[in-house]
Specification:
heterodimer, A: 182 residues, mainly alpha, B: 134 residues, 4 helices, 0% strand
Amino acid sequence: MRPLCWLLGLGVLVAACKPAPACDEPQGPAGVIDEPLMAYLSMARSQHHRADLAEARGDVSAARALLEQLVATAAPAGFAEVAEVRADTLARMAQLDLRSGDLDAASRSAARGLVEVPQEGYYRGHLLEIDGLVEEARSKRLEADGRLAEAEAARQRAIVQLEAAVRIQQAVIERAIQGTTP
Amino acid sequence: MIRSSVLLSLPLLVVVGCGGAPPPAQQTAYEGQSARKMEAAPAEASMMAPQSDHMSVEALDARFALELDETLTLSESSLRDCAGACRALQSLTRSAEAICSLTPAEEPRCLTARQKHQDASTRVLDRCGPCAPE
């Protein structure tokens, strides 16, 4: 299952909760249910679904345009869920760019995503992973062009990003399983 | 055991989750509320204990509600945490594979990545069982 589906499904469910002391996480600063957040999460899910359909019919540029539209949409401020949706959307855009062979666009999308999630968590790790894969592709392309020094520099950048991704996801896993029962 | 109760209580979770269970959005919020519930449970149970053989319907309802609430809390948390652990493991797996594709297999950076992947896989498998395929 796509990570975003998990996030959005959970987010919409939580945002739709009636006010209750135990169900207060997505509420705004005043402690009331935040309808703009609920609407944003619902719209984001729908937009990703439309991008899925575009991808399924092989129209990658349409899928990317839909995701770009989502990122450009004004979002309610101050919610971690919003930053995570934007980060995951930019990660997906970077993957599409990578698949299309537009490595510079992929790097820009990943960099934009990393700005959204400065704290170390799953989404930052995922973006670093994609950035590493982009640099890996760049290294191979440069090597094929005979630009060996630049290829080596890209390879080193790829490894650094991927190692950071491994380290972050390892920490995410440790935190996550602390709440489980063996 | 918890995993099977997760599956059994999933439909109930959706219905009851908003009103009685802690917020699923953040682990920290869950942990705080769960801890408070666990502390409260023995005191409430002991109040009912002397009448355990002839408990009133109300007392039975209260005990059942408390136990159900705790079960839902644990189940929901395990579900969320394992889902999070699995998606992080998938990202870690892809990253480690890419590191090893960029370096010779015997190079320390590949060996380290491979070891971290092995450790994380074992930890997740022990606590959550196998992750669903991507």
